[in-house]
Amino acid sequence: MRRRRDRKRWPLVMVALALGLLVLGYYFYTEVRPAVIFGLRPDYAHAIPFQPVPLGLSSLRAEECGTCHQAIYEEWRSSIHAQAYTDPFFQAYWTKDNRIWICLNCHTPLENQQPTLITDIPRDRVEKAVQVHNPRYDPEYQREGVTCAACHVRNGTIFGPFGDSVAPHPTDYDPAFRTTAICYRCHNVVSGPFQFYNVGPCGTYAEYEGKYFMQQKGYICQTCHMPEVIRPAAKGGPLRHGRRHVWRGGHDPEMIRRAVAIYVQAEPLKPQPGETVTVTVTVINAGAGHKIPTGDPDRHFTVEFRVRDRDRHVLAEQVDTMGRWILWQPVIVEVYDNRLLPLASRDYQFTFTIPEGQSDLVLETQVRYHILTDGQHAMLREKYGLEADDPYRFLIYHREFPLNTQLALALEKQQLDSRLACRRQPETSAMFNPFHG
Ligand code: HEC
Ligand code: HEC
Ligand code: HEC
Ligand code: HEC
Ligand code: HEC
Question: For ligand 1, is residue 154 a contact (CB within 6 Å)?
């Protein structure tokens, strides 16, 4: 009797369990798991407070600054900072994240640029923030993304790196301009609860701190991302030691080439048909003060090997990836990170047995940089309105070697070329070049 009653209870127990799990799941997704892929830090949890126009100027707009700071304005306009809002990749991902307000605190950081004011963030949950209409919102100004005033204007004063400028607007000296503090707010996105990143999703700052280029050479972000220049800071002003406002990074193949040194070796050096040849591509982070790739966790390199016959048919292929592997659901767990620290190197190996009678095969070695994966790109196109054709992967290195007795010569030439390239343009080749010898 008793047993039978127990058996009847089973379905009830299962239903209760399922309900319990549902409630837990609901609680987890609404109260525990952050709604965005990063955590909140007090400094970027809020917009930069409303800025009035400094005395002597008629607007905060970059274009207004550009009437006197022409060169800087043109550089800024060409930079990704100026596109931090209009950037089609930002727009697509922002749409994916339901255009949540928090993104704007770095991509359009001034209150003047934001449609709503945040009055409260209950329990630090960004999706529950209390928002009210911002009467001083300027939609045109929002399109300027990380505009001049985001870094330079506070409370009617224009801050800068000089202590002695005579300007038609109030100025003040701020030592932060000559340190990394000025980049910290936005380039050190941290992780939140239940997000197990090694460093946060755009945590370049944390990768850089105290590493080689800073400790040994005193390089700061600006050393590499805002090259030094001597010119008047404003029309008609005296010559100054200033910096170009270009901030080249992952969207610029030239900049990426500067970060990496690539070196190819093979064994045996004069392979014959029937022999197995092992090719090693060494990738060195020779020119970046942080890991490569850095920043956005989608960024990655591929190191590619292809053997082609006389008709360019691919006989063998190997593609290795350098980046971070992240499990996004149900919690964020960074499973693996094989990015290169400054001055670190890694060998990628490929072996191939040359078929009998084939002495005109070619080995293609190639390194590419990817802003995002092909899958993500397709998803953004299909679901989140990405239309622009902005390139999202770049060829960083390409070289072909004959898989026959000419191989030794081709390898020697490759080494010579990288030495010459390095001597010819010490500024644009890797900052530190291991082939200087
Ligand atoms: C009417 C011309 C004019 C306009 C408009 C103007 N500036 Fe200036 N600014 C100057 C001059 C002149 C100097 C002084 C240059 C010098 O001493 O070398 C200066 C200096 C500066 C400095 C250096 C301050 C320091 O002491 O370190 C910064 C930064 C600056 N301006 C930013 C801006 C920004 C941002 C805007 C727009 C919101 C702007 N300026 C608009 C003319 C102008
Ligand atoms: C107010 C926030 C903010 C500040 C301050 C800031 N950045 Fe940025 N930065 C961004 C955002 C947002 C992007 C990405 C824009 C995009 O791709 O949509 C970016 C992009 C970049 C990139 C280009 C990356 C690429 O994909 O090509 C570099 C390099 C960079 N910043 C360097 C710096 C340096 C150096 C400083 C300090 C002098 C600095 N930034 C200060 C917000 C900021
Ligand atoms: C992401 C932050 C950032 C943005 C945005 C930015 N600047 Fe700067 N600016 C800096 C830094 C850092 C320096 C200090 C460079 C140095 O060490 O001389 C600087 C220096 C200056 C100077 C002094 C001259 C020089 O080259 O050092 C002027 C003038 C200036 N900026 C104007 C502007 C104007 C105009 C804009 C917009 C068109 C702008 N800045 C946008 C960070 C920024
Ligand atoms: C020694 C030179 C050097 C220093 C110092 C340096 N960088 Fe870079 N950075 C590079 C090079 C070269 C690249 C291009 C390689 C790449 O994109 O991975 C790069 C790439 C980047 C990118 C682009 C990532 C992407 O693909 O979107 C960002 C953002 C960035 N740096 C920010 C910073 C910040 C912030 C600092 C200071 C904390 C800094 N960098 C210090 C050389 C440097
Ligand atoms: C704390 C500052 C900060 C916040 C908040 C922030 N970002 Fe960013 N974002 C950055 C920086 C810095 C970069 C540039 C990093 C790099 O180049 O890899 C960036 C880059 C990006 C990129 C890459 C753009 C490109 O051209 O490849 C996308 C997409 C993006 N952010 C979307 C978002 C979205 C969506 C949100 C809100 C859910 C957000 N960001 C919130 C700082 C921030």
Answer: no
Tens digits of residue pLDDT in 116-165: 999 999 988 999 999 999 999 999 999 999 999 999 999 999 999 999 99
Mean pLDDT (the chain) is 91
Q: How far is the CA of 296 from the centre of ligand 2 (A)?
A: 11
Nearest alpha-carbon partner for 436 in 424, 425, 423: 423
Residue 386 belongs to some domain of the structure: yes
Whether the CB of 182 sits within 6 Å of ligand 2? yes
Query: How far apart (Å, rounded) are the C-alpha atoms in residues 149 and 157?
Result: 10
Cα(113) to centroid(ligand 1), Å? 21
Structure letter (DSSP) for residue 363:
E
Asked whether the beta carbons of 240 and 231 are under 8 A apart, the reply is yes
Mutate to test the pocket of ligand 4, among 180, 215, 221 (most ligand atoms within 8 A of CB): 221
- Whether the predicted pLDDT of 431 surpasses 90: no
Same domain, residue pair 163 and 239: yes
Given a contact cutoff of 8 angstroms between Cβ atoms, the answer to whether 344 and 285 are in contact is yes
Structural domain of residue 185, as residue ranges?
62-243
